[in-house]
UniProtKB/TrEMBL annotation:
Pfam families: DUF433. InterPro entries: DUF433, Homeodomain-like_sf, WH-like_DNA-bd_sf. It comes from the Bacteria. This is DUF433 domain-containing protein.
Length: 75
């Protein structure tokens, strides 16, 4: 994963059940991805979450792409 984008995704077992969040905030990666999947524009997400930066959305997309590319063995 791009190091700069990777640093924007954080994991804290005491926050949001340990799910990946953005820069230590209580904004989960899945929340951003779900909004994008529902057709919410990045500009609208940024307006709704003023602490977010455009790079945070890129980091979420990059994280999802990397997770989708993990090979799994079928049992």
């Amino acid at each position: 994963m791009n190091t700069v984008l990777h640093q924007r995704i954080t994991f804290n077992p005491r926050q949001c059940g340990g799910r990946p969040c953005i820069r230590g905030m209580r904004i989960r990666v899945t929340d951003i991805l779900e909004m994008l999947a529902q057709g919410v524009a990045a500009d609208e997400i940024l307006a709704d979450f003023p602490d977010l930066e455009p790079e945070d959305i890129s980091a979420c997309l990059h994280y999802a792409a990397k997770r989708a590319d993990i090979a799994r063995l079928a049992a």
